[in-house]
């Protein structure tokens, strides 16, 4: 089913009219509590290429023991659980909206160490857009997605929506057997994302989970000769297929696509850990190898990432869940396993705030590079 759209014009003070294309049917959301967060496309605003910036990881100044984040005095109902030995931590009894700066610093380090941290029972979706963006900015500049739907008047809030009136997220999977697809958010950027914050406003009673895999564990599992080979290689990450697909589907591209050559193995600035930095979503070829060599090695790595269930975690969403992960040490996939046309199975809708981080640096100082 094609994306349902409707065009309207809104006027901002001292600004030319903005054309917004609705990516939902208004009549089925008349009583929806979070209608202000429904997906739209600004079809006029465009942006130049992202400029380099200095980045300081908040985890570098954190207390490694995390006494502020895990203080029972401040949060007597605090419960911290490892979801798996390798990746994923769940936290209950602590509100993200109430964290002070020291707690946020320690949270940044915890996310780097555990890959993904899942907070339950949160009021984050009710604190308003400005406070949501302010929380995200603490960890880095906010990314604006070059092609995705967003929240009205807030391009920084990338919309996540799959329902009976908009099946675009499933339709773009094409003729594949599965809806899953592991990726690291917009990894083609010169300074790709660090922490992403995902909040679901409406979740099905069952299904619609998200899975993450640990790129640090994936690297550690490889044999020393393969590790040594990868340590000295870069791979091309490309935003062109995403932009070309959007244009083919009649969507607006607000920033022209780029290609970047990133180290295949990157080192996290706060932990010093090595992690694979390739993903099936955006990594296209390995620099310096013959086509057949590149294809074979990427196939090995992609299969390793996708099928490594002993270094993956699958998270079920529930009311008030917020997930934060570090794109530098994980890849992730949505699992669209429910019937959007069955009313009992509900709507999956939320928003993502993605923060940008450092220019990737690998073993021996190997850095990302690109053509200007």
TrEMBL record:
Per the database record, which ranges form the TauD/TfdA-like domain?
80-353
Needed cofactors, names only, are: Fe(2+)
Gene Ontology MF terms: 2-oxoglutarate-dependent dioxygenase activity; metal ion binding
The residues forming a coiled coil are none
The UniProt keywords, alphabetically, are: Dioxygenase, Iron, Metal-binding, Oxidoreductase
Report TM segments.
none
Which Gene Ontology cellular component terms are annotated?
A: cytoplasm
The family this protein is said to belong to: Belongs to the TfdA dioxygenase family.
Protein name per UniProt? Alpha-ketoglutarate-dependent sulfonate dioxygenase
């Amino acid at each position: 089913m094609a994306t349902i759209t409707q065009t309207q014009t809104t006027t901002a003070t001292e600004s030319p009219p903005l054309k917004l294309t609705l990516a939902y049917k208004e009549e089925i959301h008349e009583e929806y509590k979070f209608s202000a967060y429904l997906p739209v496309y600004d079809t006029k605003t465009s942006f130049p290429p992202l400029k380099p910036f200095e980045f300081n990881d908040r985890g570098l100044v954190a207390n490694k023991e995390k006494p502020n984040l895990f203080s029972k005095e401040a949060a007597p109902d605090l419960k911290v659980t490892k979801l798996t030995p390798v990746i994923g931590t769940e936290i209950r009894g602590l509100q993200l909206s109430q964290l002070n700066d020291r707690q946020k610093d320690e949270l940044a380090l915890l996310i780097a160490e555990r890959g993904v941290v899942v907070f339950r029972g949160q009021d984050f979706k009710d604190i308003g857009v400005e406070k949501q963006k302010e929380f995200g900015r603490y960890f880095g500049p906010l990314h604006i997605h070059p092609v995705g739907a967003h929240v009205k008047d807030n391009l920084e809030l990338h919309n996540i929506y799959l329902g009976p009136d908009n099946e675009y997220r499933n339709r773009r999977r094409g003729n594949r057997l599965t809806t899953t697809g592991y990726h690291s958010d917009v990894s083609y950027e010169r300074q790709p994302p660090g922490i992403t914050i995902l909040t679901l406003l409406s979740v099905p009673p069952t299904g619609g989970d998200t899975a993450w895999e640990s790129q640090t564990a994936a690297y550690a599992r490889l044999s020393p000769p393969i590790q040594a080979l990868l340590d000295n290689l870069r791979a091309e990450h490309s935003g062109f297929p995403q932009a070309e697909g959007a244009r083919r589907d009649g969507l607006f591209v607000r920033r022209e696509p780029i290609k970047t050559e990133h180290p295949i193995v990157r080192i996290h600035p706060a932990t010093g850990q090595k992690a694979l930095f390739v993903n099936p979503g955006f990594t296209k070829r390995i620099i310096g190898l013959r086509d057949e060599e590149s294809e074979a090695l990427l196939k090995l790595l992609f299969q390793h990432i996708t099928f490594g269930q002993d270094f993956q975690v699958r998270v079920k969403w529930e009311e008030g869940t917020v997930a934060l992960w570090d794109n530098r040490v994980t890849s992730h996939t949505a699992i669209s396993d429910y019937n959007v046309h069955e009313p009992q199975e509900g709507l999956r809708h939320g928003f993502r705030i993605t923060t940008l981080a450092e220019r990737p640096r690998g073993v021996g100082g190997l850095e990302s590079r690109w053509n200007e």
